[in-house]
Write a structure and sequence with these properties.
65% of the residues lie in helices and 0% in strands. The chain is mostly helical and 100 residues long. It is globular.
Amino acid sequence: KVNGCRYCVLVHTALGRKEGLTEEQLTDLDVYKDSAAYDAIQKLVLRYAEDLTSKVQTEPAVLEGLKQYLSEKEIVELAMTVGIANMANRFTESFDISPP
């Protein structure tokens, strides 16, 4: 919801359910930092994605936290995934693509 993309929220919510996110996790997404629905690694991943989306970089402490759980390759894949999602967001919003 960081970008406000209607298409992305709808599609990613459905994909999240399919991949096993709980209703509590979906409901608490906007307040993930204070939610018991997310564990430490999930909170770090969400913070990283939110930071890259809104300000292109993250705090060093967030990156160091991720390194406790993820390999360098996994962090690169995470950064690429966030970048691709942001590109898709800008594409769907700029062309006013409606959710299915």
